[in-house]
Design a protein that fits this description.
Elements lengths: L2 H6 L6 H23 L10 E8 L4 E7 L8 E4 L2 E4 L1 E2 L6 E6 L7 E7 L10 E4 L10 E8 L19 H12 L5 E5 L15 H14 L12 H18 L8 E4 L22 H14 L29 E6 L3 E6 L17 H13 L4 E6 L17 E2 L5 E2 L10 H14 L7 E4 L5 E9 L2 E2 L5 E6 L10 H4 L10 E10 L2 E9 L2 E9 L15 E6 L3
Parallel strand pairs: 9-10, 10-11, 13-14, 17-20
Antiparallel strand pairs: 1-2, 2-6, 3-4, 3-7, 5-6, 7-8, 9-22, 12-13, 15-16, 18-19, 18-20, 18-21, 22-23, 23-24
Helix pairs in contact: 2-5, 7-8
Length: 547
């Protein structure tokens, strides 16, 4: 029995707490249901608050929450096959559904029902991916980053820290208007920095502390579930994930890759506190959030189960929390990797992910059994904003520029060494063009890396994209908070076809046999929010296959 199932047995002991919690949640949950459903179709979601699915060619995993705790187990009907829900929390609001043995490339009809077969929602379709040996003609990906943030947070002058939810809903809906097959949300689903916010200037810090008072503080001495932390965590995360997604992606598989803020801290290092590698409380915050709200990566035959965060005893067999694969027949393999969760900071030997993860990336990159390959790291390659948790030693200098004359405190050289090995393995491909699609940067950008340190890529540059931030606003953009935007690091030569653009937006990635096409959409207040509904790509870039 897992930790989560064991905690559920305490439910009778928590009856009074459950009742009071449910009553306290009703106003917020009513807001959740109406907000998340805004501008959607008339699909009947019943008491369902949010639903996020993921598939591969033979399995599906769906994470859900309900407006109110469910007293009996809900079931997922898959073309009539019943799969019992697994409780994710101790109070019955959160349920997950995991099914294996599905057929590749087949559309299934799903429905949430009670034990007797009574409908809890309308039916909806969801299609599995093609078999790894299949040869699909095309794939469309909707990609973005930095979707999180509580819209209520504002500076004293009224400047919002994060984009209003109504604008984020419209951006997501505009992306969905183009009928993507897959969604990739690359990191920073949550912004709730528990300790590092105290390092900030008062104008930045004070609004956060006021919000902390309203929502409560997580206690690092207590478990996340089955303690007061559980209600506080869901109160924090509901507005950032459940309110945002609702049920709009029910028929579109969603890959959600994690980064530093998903561990409830910013990546920072000073004499008092170094946030990486994360402590147990940070890990518990991230792992519980994922367990409740969004799917882990499904098993992949070419991804070792020995990787960190894979095949954990409190997850279903074969699931991976931080290293994932999008395999779409022989058309595309996309390798997704969190660069913070399992890093080390031991000088020259430091890494952003462990050696066996690097070996997995190297093996898959060298195999070349798909037409295209995407590396999708959580930390961008090709640009630096001077933050501590980057691949690069660059930091804001006394004159306001980005450079290395003043060293970056506690930054380990081994991160750069691993960066070099990643670029080298990408460039060594014989048939596939080296392409990276990153998150985190709070910008849209595209550059061709011609040199990285001693490595010369002039005859086959590495194409690097940052896909665009969904939720950033005001001080969420580097130029407004740190006074300096993202720039090419000192040790790189990059031909910037789109310099980092601090706008809200997203990218559509169209994959066909011979090329990748990146269409990049951008919008920024004070543009009217209604303009989002008619957005067209402002930038379009084509990357052709080598051979």
């Amino acid at each position: 029995m897992s930790e989560f199932e064991t905690l559920l047995t305490r439910r009778k002991l928590l009856q009074l707490a459950a009742a009071s919690t449910s009553l306290a949640m009703l106003p917020a949950c009513a807001e959740l249901t109406s907000s998340a459903s805004e501008s959607q179709d008339t699909w009947n979601q019943g008491e369902l608050a949010h639903l996020i699915p993921l598939v591969n060619h033979e399995q599906l995993l769906i994470k859900t929450s309900f407006v109110r705790a469910q007293d009996v187990t809900p079931y997922l009907s898959i073309d009539g096959r019943k799969v019992a829900g697994r409780p994710s929390d101790t109070l019955g609001r959160f349920w997950q559904f995991h099914a294996a043995g599905l057929q590749a490339g087949r559309q299934y009809e799903l429905q949430l029902q009670d034990r007797t077969g009574k409908a809890l929602t309308d039916p909806w379709p969801l299609k599995t991916f093609p078999h790894p040996d299949a040869t699909p003609d095309q794939l469309r990906i909707l990609a973005y980053t930095c979707a999180g943030g509580n819209e209520a947070l504002r500076m004293d002058n009224g400047t919002p820290f994060f984009l209003p939810m109504a604008a984020r809903h419209r951006l997501l809906q505009r992306g969905m208007d183009f009928n993507p097959d897959v969604v990739i949300s690359n990191g920073d689903h949550i912004y709730w920095d528990q300790r590092t916010v105290h390092n900030k200037p008062d104008a930045f810090k004070t609004p956060w502390l006021e919000l902390f008072k309203e929502y409560g503080s997580l206690d690092p001495k207590l478990p996340m579930l089955g303690s007061p932390n559980e209600e506080i965590l869901t109160r924090i995360v509901d507005p950032q994930i459940a309110y945002l997604y609702g049920v709009r992606f029910r028929s579109t598989p969603v890959f959600m890759l994690t980064d530093d803020h998903d561990m409830f801290e910013n990546d920072e290092a000073n004499d008092d506190f170094i946030t990486l590698p994360p402590d147990q409380h940070m890990l518990a915050s991230a792992r519980t959030t994922q367990y409740l709200y969004y799917p882990e990566f499904l098993p992949d035959a070419n991804r070792p189960q020995s990787l960190s965060g894979c095949n954990s005893p409190d997850r279903s067999a074969g699931l991976s929390e931080v290293y994932g694969t999008l395999r779409y027949g022989k058309l595309l393999e996309a390798l997704m990797y969190d660069t913070k969760r399992y890093c080390s900071i031991d000088g020259e030997s430091a890494f952003v992910f462990p050696p066996n993860t690097e070996q997995w990336l190297a093996d898959r990159t060298a195999t070349e059994d798909t037409r295209h390959l995407l590396h999708i790291p959580s930390t961008p390659i090709g640009w630096s904003a001077g933050k501590w948790g980057e691949w690069y030693p660059d930091i804001r200098q006394s004159d306001g520029s980005l450079g290395q004359e003043k060293p970056k405190p506690y930054w380990p050289r081994g991160w750069w060494s691993q960066h070099q090995r990643i670029l080298k393995m990408l460039q060594a491909q014989k048939k596939r063009t080296p392409v990276i699609a990153s998150g985190d940067l709070h910008a849209l950008s595209y550059g061709q890396i011609a040199r990285s340190g001693e490595l010369d890529f002039g005859d086959n540059p590495i194409h690097s994209f940052c896909v665009g931030p969904l939720g950033s606003s005001g001080p969420g953009f580097p130029t407004q908070y740190r006074g300096i935007g993202a720039q090419v690091p000192s040790d790189l030569d990059v031909k910037e076809l789109l310099k980092p653009l601090e706008n809200n937006g997203f990218s559509l990635i169209d994959v066909t046999a011979d090329k990748l096409v990146f269409d990049m959409f951008n919008w920024l207040p004070p543009q009217p929010v209604e303009d989002i509904d008619q957005l067209q790509p402002s930038y379009s870039f084509e990357v052709k296959r080598l051979g």
